[in-house]
Write a structure and sequence with these properties.
The chain is built from four helices and 15 strands. By secondary structure, it is of the alpha+beta class. The protein has a domain of 184 residues. A hairpin with a 2-residue loop joins β1 and β2. This is Extensin.
Length: 287
């Protein structure tokens, strides 16, 4: 029966001179009706919402998937995992105990620090709980002869030695080149050394490198002529002051494993974050 109806329709098309349509989109069937009203089509399944980026303060730890392993202090991080189901417990915070330092490496570092001309005092072991502390801390007063750390601060010897070496070999020569051969740096004004806190002052997340004695934040440089070079956004600063800041920032990555400057994020607009966190394969993060 269907074959006969089809033949009749085809004959009708040929007799009337009509042509069959060329290849094209298949006509969409009209929606079925129910009681004279169109029957609603089913909605397509919605895609699951993507989790919002996490924020540990800028930069948070860089050991997450989107960043190289062990990326250091205060780096921004994302967490693309969907939030846990309602009622499930949040993952427990990982507490890293205070690391015991090698007595031989510590003694070698102290000798190098004395040789370069730093003034410091050895201090008692710090363990403030929650992973905060320094096994063998020192109180640094003077980075180099005639160059104070203002105010003095507690840190690991390794951090102090990196700071002193960078000041002597990179920052001091850059100041002479930028501002004249008689220019001397007389102080590094610091905004933070050892402090027990999470990264970028967040209420949760990983412990800051400051809490391990690995980090120091430099807010400004004092010069012998009374001039103060304040750390601030200077990427577009075409003056010698801008060139000096960019030079010391770039050179710092030769001495520290993390360098964050005002161009890295809002949390570092007014200081340089320098730390000596250890990473696999000697990786360094400089922004």
């Amino acid at each position: 029966m269907r074959h006969a109806v089809g033949m009749i329709l085809l004959s009708s098309v040929i007799l009337t001179g009509a042509t069959l349509p060329k290849k094209g989109p298949v006509p969409v069937a009209k929606p079925a009706t129910l009681g004279g009203q169109p029957t609603p089509m089913p909605r397509p399944p919605s895609k699951p919402a993507k989790a919002r980026d996490g924020d540990e303060g800028l930069a948070n730890d860089a050991s997450k998937a989107e960043s190289p392993p062990g990326k250091g202090e205060d780096l921004p991080q994302k967490d693309d995992a969907l939030p846990p189901p309602p009622g499930s417990a949040a993952p427990a915070e990982v507490i890293v105990p205070v690391k015991t330092e090698s007595a031989e490496e510590y003694a070698s570092c102290l000798a190098a620090l004395r040789k370069i001309g730093s003034r410091f005092t050895e201090a008692a072991r710090i363990d403030d709980g929650s992973g905060c502390g320094i096994d063998k801390p020192i109180e640094v007063e003077t980075i180099l002869p005639g160059v104070a750390l203002s105010p003095g601060g507690r840190m690991r010897c390794r951090t102090a030695l990196a700071l002193a070496t960078w000041t002597k070999e990179a920052a001091a020569p850059a100041a002479r080149t930028a501002f004249g051969p008689d220019t001397r740096i007389t102080a590094l004004n610091q905004a933070s050394t050892y402090v027990c806190r999470h990264r970028n002052g967040a209420s949760t997340g990983k412990i800051s490198e400051h809490a391990h004695g690995n980090a120091v934040d430099i807010a400004s440089f004092e010069l012998a002529d009374g001039k103060t070079i304040v750390i601030q956004p200077r990427d577009e600063d075409g003056t010698l002051t801008g060139a000096f800041q960019r030079a010391v920032t770039a050179s710092a990555c030769l001495y520290f494993t993390t360098v964050l400057d005002p161009g890295s994020d809002e949390a570092h607009e007014m200081h340089l974050h320098l730390d000596v966190i250890e990473r696999e394969n000697g990786y360094r993060y400089c922004r």
